[in-house]
Amino acid sequence: MATDNNHDAEPAGTAPDPIADRSLSGPLLIATILLFGSLLWALYDELFAERPWKRYQEQFVRTYSAFLEKLGPRQAAAEKTVRSSPAFQKIEAQLQSAEREASPRIREIEKELAGIRERLAILKNPFQDTRARIAVLTYELDHAGAGRAKDAIRAEIREVRKGPFRIEGLDSGGKRVALTFDEMEKQFGDLKSREAALNTELARITAPLRDLRRQRSEYLADNLAGLSPQQIEGLQRANRDSKIEIRQIHVEEAGLVDRCESCHLGIRQSVTLTAADMGNPVFVSHPNRTLLAIHDPTRFGCSPCHNGNGLATSSVQKAHGNYRHWLWPLFPKENVEAGCLQCHFGDRVLDYAPVLERGRDLFEGKGCIGCHRYEGFDRPTEQLNEVRKEAQSLETRQKEARLEAEQEVRKGDAAESNEEAQKHYARAESLRVTASSIDARLESLEQRAKYLMQDQKKVGPNLKDVRLKLRKEWIPVWLRDPQAFRPGTKMPKFRLAEEEVRALSAFIWQSGLDGPAPPRQAPGNAAAGKELFETRGCLACHSIGQPAVGGEFAANLSRLGEKAGYDYIVRWIHNPRERTRPYCPHEKRDLGPEDYAKHGQPFVFDLQNSRCPNDGHQLQVQNLTVMPSLRLSDQEARDVASYLLSLRTNASYADGVAWMDDPRMAERGRQLASRYGCGSCHEIRGLEDAPRIGTELTKEASKPMEQLDFGLLEHKAKDEGWYTHKGFFERKLRDPAIYDQGREKAPEERLRMPNIALTRDDVRALNTFLLGSVDSPFYGKFNSIPAQFRYIPSDRRKDIQEGWWLVKKYNCMGCHTVQIGQPSVLSGLPRYQDPDWKEQLPPTLVQEGARVNPDWLARFLANPAISQAETNRNGIRTYLKARMPTFSFSPNEIRVLVRFFQALADQPVLHLAEEMQPLNSQERLLARALFSSEGAPCLKCHLVGDANRDRFATAPNFLAARERLKPAWTARWMLEPQAISPGTAMPSGLFRQDGGRWVFAGPTPASFKEYKGDHVQLLVRYMFQLTAEEQRQLLQKLPTAPAKPAGAAAGMR
Amino acid sequence: MRETRGAIFATALVLAMAAGCGGSRDTAKAPAEETAGAPEGAVWKPAGDEGTVTGKVSFKGTAPKYRAISMDADTVCAAKHKSPVHPETVVVNGNGSLRNVFVYVKSGLEGKNFAVPDQPVELDQEGCIYKPHVLGMQARQNIKVVTSDDTTHNIHPLPKVNREWNVSQPPGADPIIRSFTRPEATIPVKCNQHPWMRAYIHVVSHPFYAVTGEDGTFKLEGLPPGDYEIEAVHEEYGASTQKVSLAAKGTASADFSFSPTQARRPSSLITLPALVLGCCGDR
Amino acid sequence: MPEPQEAKSSALLDKAREEIRDLVQDLKKPQETQLWKSIFRVKHDRTEPRTRALGVLANVFLHLHPARINRDAVRYSYTWGMGGISFYLFLVLTFTGVLLMFYYHPTKVQAFRDILYLEHDVPFGKLLRNMHRWAAHLMVIGVWLHMFRVVLTGSYKKPREFNWCVGVILLVLTLLLSFTGYLLPDDQLGFWAVTVGTNMARATPLLGHEGPLGPELGMTPFNDVRFALLGGSIVDANALLRAYIWHCIAIPLIAATFMGVHFWRVRKDGGISGPSPVMLESEMKPVRKLR
Amino acid sequence: MDWAQVWEIVSLPDNIPIVAIAVLVPFYTWYAARQARATDRLIAQLEADPQMAKTHHRKIHPFRPGWARELPVWPYLLRIEFLAALVVTLILMVWSITLNAPLEEPANPNHTMNPSKAPWYFVGLQEMLVYFDPWFAGVVLPTLIIVGLMVFPYVDTNPLGTGYYTIRQRRVALAGFGIGFFIWLALVFIGTFVRGPGWMWFWPGQTWDHTRVVYEVNRNLPDLFGITNAWLQAILGIIAIAVFYAGSAWGIHKLVTRSELDRKIYERTSLTQYVVFQFFAITILVGLPAKMLLRLLFRIKYVLVTPWLNV
What we know:
The complex is a heterotetramer of chains A (1053), B (283), C (291) and D (311). Chain B is 16% helix and 34% strand. By secondary structure, chain B is an alpha+beta fold. In chain B, 35% of the residues are buried. Chain C is an all-alpha fold and 291 residues long. The chains are: A mainly alpha (1053), B alpha+beta (283), C mainly alpha (291), D mainly alpha (311). The interface between A and B is large, with 56 and 61 residues.
């Protein structure tokens, strides 16, 4: 714009007016064009840039049609083969002959029906018309006033009914007939009922045809892998006709809109699509159709499990929720199972979520739970606290009630009237009753406390016994680097300075109990011990050697000889639960003989004698270890201990550890032990009630990012793109001190979390577990959580999950296969690869609930030896070297386990034994004959109680069946054991079907010619009514084996 | 007005562009898709230039002595034998060669499909002993298990790769016909009722295998020319391989040798009393 | 009787022909039609100044302006166009705002989701929201610059003092409009901005429960001025609804009223203030009030 | 220098308007100053040459006698307005297509944002919270500003400078408004670009660190003198404020009566007008920066400490 003020420099009048004469067209045109351009840009943005899914859909339609094109001929050929198979041809032939047979009658019926329908059509109009007229007249009659009026109407009705109605074409001649209404009505009714009768007949005749057709199509569907050509054609048509449009799942109740399928078009296709098929991993089918069927996407959507922003379609990043302000980013593929945990937080073991399960195993097994509370883990301890609190408040209430009762009595005594006194006395009575009823409640609480104390376990060993158990100079070596001494151990490496190591060692050493010392033991036979160790089942939990052979549930014992004392280990192996001194949680100290002596009691404490002599409270009478007693004899225990103590390297240990007795060091060590939370995993004198030192992790993944302390790495994390929960957990797990990097901190302020030996997969599993640990699921994501999103385990499912916690706690899967597809640790050991040792594997527990009587199971779990007297044996499979240990489960846990097995096999909670039909004497003879016949192999493998025969036995005694088994299961087992327990020594094909019954497949004794009953049922009944006496008689009938005593034949090396 | 017209124009333009791009992409993609589908492998047919591999499996050292099998668990079995029966674990022939060694082409035939013989291989149970003791078969070929005994057996193969089964066979029962679908070297077969009974089935993907017999030799005929790895497997002494090169219509030889020091099973494993009593009293 | 019939039909034809002729006539000269005249009151004729002026006077849009204007006031350099731009942005905001209202529910359950839908679902929804937001920011800037210009050209001086005051009120209203809109997406940004903003109201002297003398007058979190603003003691559903009503109805109405006054006063105060001829110091009449 | 951080803050969609202001305000200031200088030159010319003053059309814009003094609004003004509307729409379109309006996490009362900032145009007020108690910064001060703006035309008694850009004729008014405008903008800039997590002071380029710890002990004025008695504290505060007002009033008076013209204008002012002017000038234009400096440089929190209110 002109700012020129030199106004008179130019000649007047001639110059054009700079404002009035200037055209603005140029700028206007440019602005208009630019604006138009911006509109085009907006349009492009709206149609393409913001709609990347359109390109995905185009690509999908293209590749998918090519894929189907290729699939079509393949499936057509497959269908052709199925159609030409004899079975199909047979059905086809049957169908054709049936059709031929039925067709004349069908034609007849159809012809007649056609005639009837024609006549009905003719009759219908006049009939219905007249009926309507009569109905109207009847209505008028009802509402007409006087008698005369009614009469008139009646007459009219009569007139109408009389007709006559002239109707043409009713019969074949085509004559016109005159009918009254009644005649018409009758004829109409007759025709109708004839029509119904014919239809029924038609249905009856065609039923077998329909059946055969259904069979034919079912056969085709069953035998054709994949889709039929028709189905493929349907898919092709659908694909051709598919429009480019948003595909969304809308769950109204949840306010959920998921449009994932706008790009992931292959997810729910009925053909399985792979990345190779489609050339793009975006289009693959969902990898697990079973899961998809359970969590039907039309009811659940996608984002409730996978997270991400289901609504967004403008970019991959937005849709996956991988941007700063979206609180639920897509779970990374490797942690996808975290999604399961959001709802299934109480479930210990989940099908299809092995990584998550591994994460939980690690969380429990590596002792994370020692420092970090996590809801559901270590329940006994938490419940114990609750029980104690409740008991305390009850005691207070009781005291108050008693006091008040006394006051009431006093008030009553002083009352003015009798009525009033009575009122007070009554109130006092009721208070007294209340107080005493609290006693009952307290007792049950005490019982619960006792059981819970029995259930309570610690991750690490009891350190009160260090003086009795350990070599003094070994302790600092261990503390310096546990992984160096025992690679893979649960004990993590605390980043301790030498001074701290010394202080801690001194504290642990000095806090140990001095006695009573375990009894001195004579040395055992290490070679026998080795054999015992390898065959009794120790390797299901423990491992030996490097690389380790055996289970990773418990310690690797390779260098036990360098650390432990013989006497203590013997006692430990004999019964690991045996405590040196009982611990009184009330007095918070370990009791000694002197406490018992004070009250004139012997120093005896066990589950039966678990009350404190001083105050009557429940004592902790067991070591808090999950290690069970294997019921070894004293000699066996000595042998195993001798073997284990012989395991050592020639590492040398410094002698000068006098400082371990310095009380000042111990005091410092005590502070350190509290700081590092040693008491969380170990029992340590003085630190029994030490709280968990770590953060609770139950909802860790819902913590706002700002609350995760990345330390100085925050900006690096942001720059490198791992400023996420996953990034935080991952690095923290790999290097727990990482967020202290570069920070100046006093030693006591540094991060305490120790270095845990974790592999990449371990970190992934734990990360999956942590990422799924969220606040109430979907918080803020939906308006409200609709019913179908809630996961409330039913009784059965709840029982199963409760059981899994215990199965995992005691490592049942070390010896047993609990679920199909889950190998036990033992079954993987080299020894059990040998065909002969396979029978020595502990039984699989698949369908255990269906197999055994729950009452028996409860008894067995309480005492696997079955017998009170002879404990050094297996109760039911005495031929097994591996031994079912005595876990001393509390009744709580036994109940949970029994219910677990019942629920797993879908058995009713309450077991009522089936009624057994008694055998008559003839049947008994028959059964006995069959059992002992040449062809019957039963007694070759099953225990019979005869020492000579039992040498070869690889199966339990039939005598136990009555109490132990369920008859229905036994019958099924005899018929098809391989279907119940694949790979079992019990062969299939022992019986064959004969008419409606099962008969023994081999040669049967002559007496069976007349027997028409079911052989399996007969044998089951015999088995369940077998007595010891009967068994003896049975054995006598057997061809006697040449009696070679077992010992003589033993060329055992 | 201008905006609407603009919108229509833009849509038309963009659609035209999209159509153009789409078309060109289609043509570009077509040939790639054709090559993607690999043809199914055709069944191999002999071309006439096949050769033979022969060899002998010798044994060095002293053969272990086995105690006679005690068949007192089943009198029927015991009755069938007049003389004591010894385990067939290590059988050394008179000429110093090793019997019951399974020899097969371990590698060199990859990518070829071989027709599955219609004839099943047969495993007999006679006198509570499996005959033959070592058996080779092709994957998907049928195995027919027959019994010649008057006692009930059960056939229990213990594969690791294939599916495990365990079927009872009473005297006079129909033969059991089964098959193994995947190649697997050494599937032990046992009878749970007669613990000494043992057979070894080797499942391979081709017909080029042999089991050494009384002279300890083997012959793999009809092999197409090429370089092969031949493996000899013995139940006790494990496996040993050799490389051979076969010219058209040529012959090649591969001799193997086993000695007791090669025992592959750790001895501590064999301590079950039933076994000690029964079969393999060990070397 | 064929004749009369023929006559009748030919008469009909003639009438139709006439009609069509009229229609063509109308189409040729649309300005002559009744429809045209009913809409455009005055014939637009560039040649005659009077009708030209009338054309302007009869036009509602042109009514905001005088018919003629100081020739230099047309220049951008003087006005910067900021007042007009602000008003234009207000119109844009009203337009986009009304469209947004179709898609928005001021409830805790729906609000945030509605924004998500706008972003991903509604055709041009994202553009709409962006335009509304950025137009709001631009309007604040525009109003500020307008005020800046008015100060620099001394346009607030007599006789425009009152219109300046109206302008200040409009500035405050603009800020309030923007501020109330901030909460509506119901996200963290808006929530905390509004929390911070309204927390100041707590401290209002006399009327806030944390303000000087507030508690002494019986102010609690549940009856003070902040409670009145939020409809509760925390920023929640009621606050959302209040913000919505203020943002969409109350403040726009008030602002529109004041705008009317503002524009009217611009004309009544003598139109746009300049560029006017400079006044010289020497021409200033001495007035002595203070010495 | 943490350039990534600088870019992150500057490119935040909600901060774009402030960046725009940072460009627009200097530009328009320069644009106005250019015209003002031209006008001032013209005024000087005319003052010096009374003859010319009589004939000159007295505008910096060119004028020829043949030109119309007034132009019809249609089309001359409206076409420009139309162009402006087009350009604004264009800017708005491009801005809206390229930058998305922010949408953060759903509101969560349990999770405080750090820093949680008011919209940028109120960030100045939020920044004032550092220097004053909420009742003052949040309520009294905005009221004072609004009222101050409203009384502005009533206390400015200068008849010169209506309708054209000038500096020499309106030094006091322009300085007054300019200082106020500048303070306001400065506060907005500080609040947006300098205040980081915990509302801590981060120099531009310094990394915004959530965990940063600063040592900042604030004192009250009486503490400097060791006065603990409430009455004495209050009295001291009142004295300090009174002294400050008196001193500032004297200083401002000196400034507004410096030149001849200023004195003339001053004489046209009534006492009420002058007192009102002085009050707002001292409180907002001097008091505000003074308090800020006290706080930022000397860490003095309150000057006046009483049991009811503190300043």
